[in-house]
Amino acid sequence: MLFADAAHRMTEGFTLATVLKPDVGTPELPEGQVRIRIESDNMIIDTDEELIHKTNPPKLDYAEDLAQLISLNESSVLHVLQQRYGSQLIHTKAGPNLIIIRPSSTVSNYSGKLFKGKKDGMPPHVFAVAQRAYWNMLIHRKDQSIIPLGWSGAGKTTSCQSALEYIVGTAGSVGTTVTVGKIQAMFTILRAFGTISTPQNNATTRFSMVASLDFNQAGRVSAAHLQTMLLERIHVAPQSNCEGTFNVFRQMLAGLDLSFR
After folding, report:
1. Fewer CB within 10 Å, N or C, the chain?
2. Is 157 annotated as a binding residue?
3. Known binder of ligand: residue 116?
4. Quick one: pLDDT band at residue 69, thresholds 50, 70, 90?
5. Is 154 annotated as a binding-site member?
6. pLDDT, greater one: 38 or 81
């Protein structure tokens, strides 16, 4: 079993434990209480039954989709995410949704070449989400949306760029109206003028945006649109909370001769 009491929840989180059967001759536990043995140190304690979460078979420790879990609870979800992240598997599906745990270093599986030609059976990835949206649009002839959610600096802008690049690269475009190179150039400009450095991320976006693609009847990209809003202009000047100014100023200074700095 996975167990967490009031103290463990804030310090150690969840730990593996086994629920024990009542011993003969021992006083019965109060209603709602169970006796458990913590596997790590064999300590036997009494705790609230509501804090006990059932585990899943070991074969589900690296489940690609959390919906596959037999016992779906907070501790099991965290366990799977932790196991996958420890194996550099930062993407995990949760039904139709995708969970991404931002890595501390650059990952190497964001090349469209790794997924080129695959129409199904793709592992959890931003490209798989983009592919599903594209094919649903073609099959059902209805608009599709991909909405990245997360804390500031979690990687929403990067996910948005990756999805756009994959769709444009897969669908192709009418002439050279929209290309992967143009998408990359657009985000380079957006990052320069709209991101700042923070302790968590050196390119945290400080504006909101809505990007959209238009397609012709053949499913090829015919146009792209970008709307930006809510730019935090306060970051034109340095802030007192360890947040820098917009990265374009740092980049401009880095390109200047020392005599002009």
Report:
1. C
2. yes
3. no
4. very high
5. yes
6. 81
